[in-house]
Amino acid sequence: MTHVNQHPPLTPLSMHILLALAEEDLHGYALMQTVRQQSGGAVSPGTGSLYAAVQRLVDDELISVVAPNERSMGRRGSTYRLTPTGRQAASAESERLQGVLALASDRKIIANPERA
Questions:
Q1: DSSP string of 75-94, one letter each residue
Q2: Complete domains list, the chain, with CATH
Q3: How many CA atoms, within 13 angstroms, populate the side-chain half-sphere of residue 8?
Q4: How is residue 20 annotated by DSSP?
Q5: In this predicted model, what pLDDT tens digit does every residue of 61-91 receive, in sequence order?
Q6: Which residues neighbour 80 within 8 Å (Cβ) at sequence distance 6 or greater?
Q7: Phi, psi at residue 46, to the nearest 5°?
Q8: Which of 53, 72, 88, 102 is most deeply buried (CB count within 10 A of its CB)?
Q9: Burial of 62 (0-12, 13-18, 19+ CB in 10 A)
């Protein structure tokens, strides 16, 4: 198991997957649509990219596969759930990104995010 404090920064796709699963369990197609919607289309994975990222997150125990038929509602394929470790990783990544934004603001790269 990878510990959160040892986990490297998340890719935008991985972070969006964790954020999508923070609200509810989702199957692959719904996950893909949610990632596109919540990113305003900036992150628009194809099937191969999505499932490769999902598999890495499962391997790192940041998300889990819900037991078959527990949430499938007649759909084929797997449904995914955010794990407590995944929630911690998303929180740590959010804090890291806040630090990046603060630095960018200090360096006059972006407007002060608190004033925006």
A1: -SS-EEEE-HHHHHHHHHHH
A2: 9-106 (1.10.10.10)
A3: 5
A4: H
A5: 999 999 665 555 555 689 999 999 999 999 9
A6: 17, 21, 25, 26, 27, 28, 31, 54, 58, 63, 64, 65, 66
A7: -80, 175
A8: 53
A9: buried
Query: Which residue carries 């819900």 as its tokens?
Result: 66
Q: Is the Cβ–Cβ distance between 28 and 54 less than 8 Å?
A: yes
1-54: pLDDT as tens digits: 444 456 689 999 999 999 999 999 999 999 999 999 999 999 999 999 999 999
Residue whose C-alpha is closest to residue 86's, from 15, 33, 28, 24: 15
pTM recorded for the entire structure: 0.84
CA distances to 15, 39, 105 from 99, in Å: 16, 20, 10
